[in-house]
């Protein structure tokens, strides 16, 4: 296969760590197969391709970033060109380099497999999950910070470490909110699409800087922010909450989860994902890929992973400047995020870290669950109830984001230097 990093040298073979079917994983796989006939482990071709994609990046965007942000134009001028192209269209930016034109051509092309109705149905699932999806997705992401391949890029960039942990989560939440607005993700020029391209460029910039850093072990981890890691993030916003949020009262059907997968597959296209051959179309395929990742864990992130996990939940704590209702509201969300971490991180991973006590948050979440069940059952009786439930969940999520952000703007900065 060609080397997607742009090098003319042939790529070296990548091998997953040999951790297959040990302990709890083996027992879970065996029990599921005995009870349902479903094998959690994917076929060998999928597993092989999964390993290959750990070395795969985003060559079109990488050429653009190398020529502009990291080239003679520099970050300020490159950012100006990108903003103009997003606002006016790249054809109205005559000085746009060829690499930018190629990037926009790829970005604006709607793949043949896209079903607009299914994309919108998947976006509606996200609107209904709302805040709960974001909180669970981040808890599940924290669970993966045991892995150096995921923790090192975030630690080096500083995005989810220390005081910046909350800011980056709010940036990600803004993207989630904007892409799942009705019709937004397929509407040219929408904020959701513009943010998606900025996220793509930001990923490429971080990828290039981390790949050159002495702490990055290419032979061990492949490419930073690889195709596999982007895909796993998107599966974490579909299959994982579709199943996991049942504990909090959300009743999501198999067809709704698969609509969310289609929606996320298109989001993947916008942010540079190119693994259509193994991107899951069904719940079963998604579970197999999550199991494959979990089965191959190395637990090699060390203190980098610890810093990321232990930075996140405490970032919601009120500061000394917060008083009265604002302080109480922040304490509420601190406890709710701690509860999501307790529920959706693997117990043996959660025990590795020092995290705030989850008990008050769990009481709130489980106390709310019966009301969510009632709403979930009612929405199945009439489409108007479903639309109302979506609208209320989405507005609540958006209000929280506006309040938590305190008026700060999301940067999605591609040119930020590594912190060490």
Strand content: under 5%
Number of discrete helical segments: 20
Spans where pLDDT lies below 50 across 5 or more residues = 1-21
Radius of gyration: 21 Å
Order of helices and strands: HHHHHHHHHHHHHHHHHHHH
How many β-strand stretches?
0
What structural class should be given to the helix and strand makeup? Answer: mainly alpha
- Average pLDDT over all residues: 88
Shape summary: globular
Largest sheet: none
Q: Alpha-carbon distance between the termini?
A: 34 Å
Task: Assign a percent range to the helix content.
Answer: 55-70%
Description:
Helix 3 (59-67) packs across helix 10, helix 6 packs across helix 20 (383-405) and helix 9 packs antiparallel against helix 20. It contains 20 helices and no strands. The longest helix has 23 residues, at 383-405. By secondary structure, the protein is an all-alpha fold.
Please tag this protein with its features:
disordered N terminus, 20 helices
List the helices and strands and how they pair.
Blueprint: H1 23-36, H2 44-52, H3 59-67, H4 74-88, H5 98-108, H6 116-129, H7 131-143, H8 148-157, H9 165-179, H10 191-211, H11 218-221, H12 227-235, H13 239-244, H14 254-270, H15 283-295, H16 302-312, H17 324-344, H18 347-350, H19 359-379, H20 383-405
Short description:
This protein is mainly α and 420 residues long.
